Amino acid sequence: MFKVSLKNVLRPGFAGGTFKSGYRFQKYWDTPMATAFFCGETGAGLFIVSMLMDFLPGIILGLLITGVGKTFFHLTHMGVPSKAWRALLRPDRSWISRGLWGIVFFVGFGSIHVLGMLFNVVPAGLESAVYILAIAGAMVVVTYQGFAMSHSTAISFWSTGLMPISSMLYGLLMGTSLVLVLSLLGFSISNPEYFSMVGLAQIALIIAVQICLLSLLHGAKNGSKGAQQSYILLVKDFLARPFLFGVVGIGSIIPLLILLFIPTNFITSLIVTGCIMLGFYLFRLLIFKAGVLDPILSPADIFKR
To answer: Using CA atoms, how far apart are residues 140 and 105, in angstroms rounded to an integer?
Structure first.
């Protein structure tokens, strides 16, 4: 661990834990936050896809993944969990606050919708309103984390509109993948035609994710000095192997090849979903680890002194 830490800090242009000017890694969001983001986007994406298909098992599972998983890992990240409710007070100023309100609408109205489907307790005149509010809450949850990151102007790699787009694409991709696995496990889909439609959507979303990843790298390579350092970390430095082999290779290329050239069955669907899940989780972790704060002075100015 000491050698890895030393490697990450003592390189040209990086100031590490010193008071010198130079690049620094962000240390505010780490593994618990990455896992919370993963659970939130996965659960919301599964919920949205399942709602459009009227697929009750997926709706319930999506609510549980976000409501339990995301909440738990957010609380483990917070220094004083008992004060977490204060984040709800300023939705006009913070995407974190808007996201928490989105979770409240998503879980709240989503649960009411489930009760309506199971026990018919929602009045007929309110069914559409509950449905729309639950979908709206899920859309906020699947994108707000990307908006929160894109507002981090001190970290150039994050400061792009592609962050919420990547969140939404990965969330919906996880949603389609999990719906297909659940259906092959024996949970029936109301309309059999949905199965082929979801399969096509899964392929389209994998391609969209690949384009999004390429766009993120292209923007970072041609961005500010901090963004360029993030690009180097992800494609040439110590984060290159997990990113190129894990996120790009296992997480998108292998699933796409399997879906295009191997007949779909339970085993192939399970492998594809596992690969996509691994790639998405690594993406969440590595995007945080590659976050580099721009220096006050450029590296050239530093070495002239």
So the answer is: 9
pLDDT tens string 151-160 = 888 899 999 9
Where residue 23 falls among pLDDT bands split at 50, 70, 90?
Answer: confident
Where exactly are the structural domains of the chain? 28-291
The pLDDT, as a whole number, for residue 162 is 96
What are the structure tokens assigned to 160, written together? Answer: 């792009």
Cα torsion through 80, 86, 88, 89, rounded to 10? -160
Query: Quick one: pLDDT at residue 18?
Result: 57
Concatenating the DSSP letter of every residue in the chain gives -HHHHHHHHSSTTB-TTSSSSSBEE--SS-HHHHHHHHHHHHHHHHHHHHHHHT-HHHHHHHHHIIIIIIHHHHHHH-S-GGGGGGGGG-TTT-HHHHHHHHHHHHHHHHHHHHHHHHH--S-GGGHHHHHHHHHHHHHHHHHHHHHHHHT-TTSTTT-STHHHHHHHHHHHHHHHHHHHHHHHTTPPPSSTHHHHHHHHHHHHHHHHHHHHHHHHHHHHHTS-HHHHHHHHHHHTSTTHHIIIIIIIIIIIIHHHHHHHHS---HHHHHHHHHHHHHHHHHHHHHHHHT-EEPPSS-HHHHHH-
pLDDT at 25 over 70: yes
Torsion angle in degrees (nearest 10) through CA of 202, 208, 213, 217: 170
Amino acid identity for residue 134 in this structure? A
The residues pairing with 14 across neighbouring beta strands, listed in sequence order, are: 23
pLDDT score for 295: 74
pLDDT in tens, 76-91: 656 555 565 566 666 6
CATH topology of domain 28-291: Formate dehydrogenase/DMSO reductase fold (1.20.1630)
- Percent of the chain at pLDDT above 70? 82
Mean of all residue pLDDT scores within the chain: 86
